């Protein structure tokens, strides 16, 4: 499969995961929130401070937990 096809497959999988948990009107908001949170993790980890690094790692752990729970719920 070419990269364009792989991208579409990944997008369909992610959309299916979100749609399986979040009501249809809120799918865009949920997806946007995830992107913003991932950007915040990057920003927090870049700043050379122990406090922001810990906050970034905590936020990353929360995102990973939500992704895992969403995947598990969708797989049922």
Commentary on this structure:
This protein is 83% helix and 0% strand. The chain is mainly α. The chain has one domain. Helix 2 runs antiparallel to helix 3. The longest helix has 26 residues. It starts with a helix and ends with a helix.
Number of helices: 3
- Identify the overall geometry: elongated
Q: What share of residues is helical?
A: over 70%
Termini gap = 28 Å
Which descriptors apply to this entry?
76 residues, mainly alpha
Topology:
Blueprint: H1 3-19, H2 27-46, H3 50-75
At a glance:
This protein is mainly α and 76 residues long.
């Amino acid at each position: 499969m070419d990269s364009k096809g792989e991208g579409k497959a990944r997008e369909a999988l992610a959309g299916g995961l979100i749609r399986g948990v979040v009501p249809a009107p809120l799918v865009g908001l949920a997806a946007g929130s995830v992107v913003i949170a991932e950007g915040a993790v990057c920003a927090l980890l870049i700043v050379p401070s122990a406090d922001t690094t810990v906050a970034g790692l905590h936020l990353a752990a929360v995102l990973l937990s939500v992704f895992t729970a969403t995947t598990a719920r969708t797989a049922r």
